């Protein structure tokens, strides 16, 4: 299981340039005018993880298969999108289908690149997009909550929970706050809230697109975005889409030297993925053998059968137990056989909660 992040923002902030760089394709046309991206482009990206290479080296694996992350480049938004302006209806529909929002914000000055409002103000840009999403959710809930309340008076228990949960979200939206701040008290409330597919319920990662010279430490614009993210409990990263676009044209051995010259230790993709993992509470486990070393993704807190199901649904249905070795033990001891001899291979049952970095083998009927 990877996860799908929708790249959003106002026109001409660098969304398509970043998408092209991250996915190492030119699938999205990057042009200096609004709506150059009309259909959402989807790119699958390998999640970089140095642990996978080390595991493969220990096991002598013939193939290395990383887990995948999907980026969706979504058409630029303008004011009035919640009422169908521009490509509003399509934009909102595309956002509804992603797991998280990667909000690209222009944090650079360049007179050659037009801004829809003729100014550089990333916080105002973020608020423009957020307002349109909140207005769309507000319109939706103002119809749904009364309908649920009416059904609740007739004895419908699920409608009663829905009216309570979505009523809290509606109150927040009326206060100008996103639905993701809704306090959920139990699993049932979480389920109903999730099924509502509210646009502002999705976690947000702000990507500050800065000029090349500010790629290492940011600038005054990105500093304001980080303040906003901190106040919201959101995540933010600094990336130069221009640098990322240059990197994809280089041979792998040239990239490290180039990044070091720019004062960077890694490409922007790695920073975005790490922030995305934190945002969606994801962890990685591994399966390792002579044929392949492979990374898999599950949500933090997932039990062993759920992890088995990521490999094949039959593994989850017929789950018997998992043989598990911690990553550090596998690498330090030199593989499965020595880990077993040292008593570091554990037999875990259905209630075992998978830990990040676990090397796992599943036994099933």
What does this structure look like?
The protein is α/β, with parallel strands linked by helices and 365 residues long. Helix 4 runs antiparallel to helix 5. The protein is flat. About 5% of the residues have low confidence.
List the helices and strands and how they pair.
Elements: E1 4-8, H1 15-23, E2 41-46, H2 50-59, E3 63-65, E4 68-73, H3 88-96, E5 100-106, H4 122-153, H5 157-174, H6 187-195, E6 204-209, H7 220-232, E7 235-239, H8 241-247, H9 252-261, H10 268-280, E8 282-288, E9 292-299, H11 304-311, H12 313-317, E10 319-325, H13 327-333, H14 336-341, E11 346-348, E12 359-364
Parallel strand pairs: 1-4, 1-5, 3-9, 5-6, 6-7
Antiparallel strand pairs: 2-4, 8-9, 10-11, 10-12
Number of strands: 12
Major beta sheet summary? 6 strands, mixed
**What is the percent of helical residues?**
40-55%
Structural class: alpha/beta
Shape: flat
Give the strand content.
15-25%
Mean pLDDT: 87
How far from one another are the termini?
23 Å
H/E series: EHEHEEHEHHHEHEHHHEEHHEHHEE
Widest β-sheet, arrangement of strands:
2-4-1-5-6-7
State Rg. 23 Å
Detail the poorly predicted runs: 26-38, 84-88
Helices, by number, come to 14
Characteristics:
single chain; 365 residues; alpha/beta; six-stranded mixed beta sheet; 14 helices; 43% helix; 19% strand
What's this entry about, in short?
With 365 residues, this protein is α/β, with parallel strands linked by helices. It contains 14 helices and twelve strands. α1 (15-23) runs parallel beside α8 (241-247) and α4 packs antiparallel against α5.
